[in-house]
Amino acid sequence: MLLAAVQLSACAPLMFGGVLGGAMVASDRRTTGIQVEDESIEQRSNSAVRENFGSKEHINFTSYNRQVLITGEVSSEAVRAQVEQLIGRIQNVRSAVNELAIGPASSFGDRSSDTLLVGKVKAAMVDSEDVFANVYKVVAERGTIYLMGRVTQNEAKRATEVVRGVSGVKRVVRVFEYITEDDLRAMQPKRSEDAPRAGSSASAVPSAAQQPVVTPIK
């Protein structure tokens, strides 16, 4: 019973944190198929780097909606460019955002701090009660927080405000695909009586995915 109470408490902000047109979206905005494909892209990216560079470079990959964020540290500008080209050739990758730094690999302590920072950021999103934490992919690298997701302009602004207020965050970089408020409303679960009838003009086809907009925020 205690476990159930804790789980319900943790979920409450996601369920009641925000309302749009009387409905809410509190889950991942990718299809299940795309989520699986993103995991596969990350695996193929890691395999490709190991085959080409071994363990000499510290490189991380995060795929969201088939757009790959590349973070970590490499030894030279040439390697940085080679990694981006390599990922661009992986099947089903739509685009790559290259945030690799040139320099020595981060320490174990740095990586541990980044892991803790991701936890603090996610907790702050949940506690804010008006940010749908499940909508965002959060990545930390050397104190910089990268936010990925399919969000509206208002959601991006509010999430950035929350993350900037977290102790230990040095910088926020938004790697978002922006959707309109109408797009968001279309994602809401439809009641049976609201479902479009056969032959109606309503379209169930989602809008084409956009290129990510990368916005560094101090």
CATH architecture identity of the domain at 33-102 = 2-Layer Sandwich
Low-confidence sequence ranges: 1-26, 197-207
Q: Averaged pLDDT, please? A: 83
Oligomeric organization of the protein chains: single chain
Question: Short description, anyone?
Answer:
Helix content is 40%, strand content 22%. The chain is an alpha/beta fold and 218 residues long.
Structure description:
- The chain is of the alpha/beta class and 218 residues long.
- The chain has a domain at 33-102: Histidine-containing Protein, Chain: A (2-Layer Sandwich).
- Helices cover 40% and strands 22% of the residues.
- The strands form two sheets. Strands 1, 2, 3 and 4 form a four-stranded mixed sheet that branches. Strands 5-6-7-8 form a four-stranded mixed sheet.
- β6, α5 (153-164) and β7 form a beta-alpha-beta unit.
- The model is unreliable at 1-26 and 197-207 (pLDDT under 50).
